[in-house]
Amino acid sequence: MSPAISILVPDIGAPSLGAAIRLRELLHPLSTEIVGPDFGTGICSLYTDAGPFTSVPAGNMYRYPDFLWASRRLDRAIRGRLVIAVKAFMNTVPVALRRQRQGGKAVVFLDEWDGALYAGWSPREKQIARLKSLHHPLDDAYFPVVESMISAMDTVLSTTHFLQKKFGGHVVHMGVDTDWFSPQPEDAVDALKRSLGLAGKRLIVFGGVVRPHKGTEQILEALVRLNRDELRLLVVGPVTDYLSDLMNDARYARWLVVAGAPLDDPEGTNRRIHAQMPLYLDLADLVVLPLLDTPLAQSQMPIKLFEALAMGKPVIGSHVSDLPEILDGCGETYPPGDCDRLAMRIGEWLDHPEIAHTLGQAAREKCRHHYSKAAAGQKIQAILTPLLT
């Protein structure tokens, strides 16, 4: 029996596969499948156990004319009558619209503005990029082309009001399983802390993939200013090139601990850690989400925010995107890039744990009522179910 919904990802080997998996969970019990091109790397190492997936060989899809042939293979692999294109790429939105022309329905799910970097380039830089990328439809220069197609979709699902304002549609915050993400047994948390060599330390935990616009360096700058030996930043996630640079920076090495392996992780370290994310998050005395004030960051809403709230953790976030709305009453925001203000707030919360405890309790309650998987699933199904009739 064919599934009702096909979730199409731009690269089945990339971390963005996680968004498709979360959509599948929110859409249950509707029948779904996840389809995507394989550029030769296989399933993303974080999610190899989260199948089934339909993987379409597409090693040369990045260039014309192979792109056209691979797009048709993707089209043939899709079985659902409603296609959700995850992200606005030339190998997602046009494929979904092709199914729409065949009588199906096409939806795009946006969790960030992927074209933000290109949009910020000068006219000369854009012209050079267009000339260089003429035969490479998955390059940045094609984002304006695919973004112009979004208005033809049957609806748009966005994770932030920034994206909704830009592309229309509905805001759907990705909910989390508040039973899975919940306070863990104290002895298990203590044992993990000892195994990481962090016994006696107070921890700020940053979960996820470290990228420059996420502002992780701001946390380290705040720790340098505080200069409190009991403090450490624990990054739980894959080791990107940017994170590796931070690890090798003499100013930060003392304060930074990493639980993760490179993205190309044949041993499955990242997958095992990801499966224990609630335990790792429960190591945190507090969580900091220091997004920078850039168009890309303004378009994002980190799923790790909702996971931290569900864990009952006090959260400090920068005044970026929808963070002020979500943290209202259960956390605090600060001006993006203001490391002095961030350091001051971290110090205050650590010196007055009763404040952090009260905010943490409020965070879990708010998440259970507004940002749980059940609440998010109910909202997204109410939007999509009419398209299936």
Report mean pLDDT, rounded to a whole number: 96
Q: Give the number of DSSP strands.
A: 13
CATH architecture of the largest domain: 3-Layer(aba) Sandwich
> Kindly, what is the distance between the CA atoms of the first and last residues, rounded to a whole number of angstroms?
17 Å
Number of domains: 2
- Name the shape in a single word: globular
**What fraction, in percent, of the residue positions are helical?**
40-55%
CATH topology of the largest domain: the name is: Rossmann fold
Indicate the structural class. alpha/beta
Strand content: 15-25%
Largest sheet: 7 strands, parallel
What does this protein structure show overall?
With 389 residues, the chain is an alpha/beta fold. The chain folds into two domains: 5-175 and 374-388, Glycogen Phosphorylase B (Rossmann fold, 3-Layer(aba) Sandwich), CATH 3.40.50.2000; 186-371, 3-Layer(aba) Sandwich (Rossmann fold), CATH 3.40.50. Helices cover 42% and strands 15% of the residues. The protein has 18 helices and 13 strands. A seven-stranded parallel sheet has the order 3-2-1-4-5-6-7, with helices on both faces. Strands 10-9-8-11-12-13 form a six-stranded parallel sheet, sandwiched between helices. Helix 1 (17-27) packs across helix 18 (373-388) and helix 9 (216-226) crosses helix 16. The two termini are 17 Å apart. The model has no long low-confidence stretch (mean pLDDT 96).
